[in-house]
Design brief:
Elements: H1 3-17, E1 22-25, E2 33-36, H2 41-50, E3 58-66, H3 80-83, E4 104-112, E5 117-124, E6 132-134, H4 143-154, E7 157-159, E8 188-193, E9 198-203, H5 225-228
Parallel strand pairs: 2-5, 6-7
Antiparallel strand pairs: 1-2, 3-4, 4-5, 8-9
Amino acid sequence: MTATERIADLARKIDARLADRAYRLASLPDELTYEIEPAALLAACFELRDAPELAFEQLIDVAGLDFLHYGRDEWQTESATRTGFSRGVAPLPAARAPTQGPRFAVAYHLLSVTHNHRLRIRTRCLDDEEPVVDSLVPVWASANWFEREAFDLFGILFRGHPDLRRLLTDYGFIGHPFRKDFPLSGNVEVRYDPQKGRVVYEPVSIEPRVLVPKVIRDDDHRYDPALRDAAPNPKPPPA
């Protein structure tokens, strides 16, 4: 059975199990991705784990997603040679088109050791102000730290998690650093104060500056069409 046939066979089995609760998303030919309705996430994952024909015994990763600036670009190209680009200096406005749907989502990567196949599932957080989805710790114990990481970096809450607290950032950290509207320089900086004998938090003292990416310059002779299209010099005949 080819890889494409294996993917098609797995998709038929998932469709049979989760017909009204999940739909297939576009993905690479050798990958399979489904979006599951938030209300059905927990029950659907139990089925993905326990159904003999699926048997996804392992959760190997959980990733938060932020669609705040999805489909828009703040990077300049050729014009950036003189003006720079504005990332971290003048961020894009936070307004989003209402047709884009919820801002936050969570992606899960599953592995079936029994059948040697993989699956990516995604679910959306319906509330942008307080993004919440069900915790999958009751299904896969490995979700514990993965969900704490997504909470720390994206501010996504996991309903029913046994110990939801920050995992990677420091005590007193403000904000969630993987959100698209989080400033690149952060909100506070940390230093040791010898007079107080402890670490202190202060407002950021970094001044934003415009950086210039490497782009094609019009005045660079290496990109002159006459030189670019010229045939290479033939090798001299052997002596």
